[in-house]
């Protein structure tokens, strides 16, 4: 056997040896160092399951990961594998500046390279908080070693004066009431302590929960495990079963590239739409698909949205929480409802097809208050729609299931904020000339802006209008919106203002027409005037001199390409 063929056929710790120019010496050296861990040679000869382990003092959502890790390891050991955890970047949504999205690609690169560089036959991806699951799936797809996702699971709800509270839709609801003067400072401080009370991810169908459901729909996670609450004993059993399934993957390898296909991505889009899921998930799913060489076009999103009902009644679009979704039947019940719309021949990580999974599950009890029957949907059409027009030639996203339909067909006067700083300086000024019929426009909050595409698209209602009882207005930006937010909020306008898109040309007083029924977003300004404004735009900002900020600015793609780095997509540069 040649040295190359020995490398190619190597498994366990013999895989991917450190290069000292002498393969046998490398193996001998690795074994001798591995033995310093106290593991027996019998253990060291077993198939290796790497565990991408992402606890962090800066990530409250992963607080329970040490306990979850023990359960994964138990499953691996019981099935005859050797579990070896390794750290990667962890992204705690609320603790990152300027935004967690800016670091999603960094985490994906870390995950990809550590899976590829270290000797593991399969990998368990432990993630949960918003950007961590997409980062891990992107990295695992690029590394393409057998992988299985395990998520943190959602938080339980808290209580405040007899009301259930869940991060973070209720965070926003109470903050809006505080801004409107309905709650005093002492009240909002009491609520602050009751919004996020357990380990786990946000308690509603925000980005983390949406991505967990998408991972299950893609077949990259064990059936029925996306929605189990973080602190439920079933979460530990799911972790153990995930470890066991990972060992099975070492013996019968199924690679992520076999699971993420055009068909499974379409299934995931159906699930996203039926969930009324997070707008962020469009960006992440586009990036995940891009790693597998599939493209999601916004036209295709609209076609699927027109034929996919919203079946899940969860906040922020509905009334229930993730713990209710789990008790109601979870992703399995949703997939069963969507069955006629799905590609049932898609493979899953267990080796079953999606159709076989659903057939094996049979018809279980479903709480129809939370997961509606297809004949009685929450909405007859999908929760998300892409808009196109002269203001968004590359598209924009509206979460219509979380918006006020009375604002869907209208023309309005633009009230423009040129940056986040400008927004925070003027939004509550008594001098701001604004009415409830105006369109609030935020510029320079897209992927290449200094703000790194923050979840700032949910512009606050100006204080004087909030105090007068205004609850929703049309808001337009190149920013993102938290999956837990709601309102008539047009997001991800592409190309962004910082890249010279038409959004950069909007000025106070311009007329903008929104038509959700026609899927249009148009700036009603004459082309000669736009040309004059375009010529007067400032030159592009200089690229940062060094480090990740430089790599990010030089490489990040627009929202319609998932904000991945150009050199990381399957197509590469
Ligand atoms: Fe981690 Fe919401 S802050 S999921």
Ligands? FE2/S2 (inorganic) cluster
Strand content: 5-15%
Portion of residues within helices = 25-40%
SS-based structural class?
A: alpha/beta
- CATH domain fold name of the largest domain: Rossmann fold
The main β sheet shows up as:
8 strands, mixed
The gyration radius over C-alpha positions equals: 24 Å
**Outline, from the CA principal axes?**
globular
Q: Determine the N-to-C terminus distance.
A: 36 Å
The count of β-strands is 14
Which residues form runs of ≥5 with pLDDT under 50? none
Order of the strands making up the biggest sheet: 7-8-12-11-10-9-13-14
CATH class of the largest domain: Alpha Beta
CATH superfamily of the largest domain: Response regulator
Number of helices: 21
The tally of domains stands at 3
CATH architecture of the largest domain: 3-Layer(aba) Sandwich
Q: Please state the average pLDDT score.
A: 95
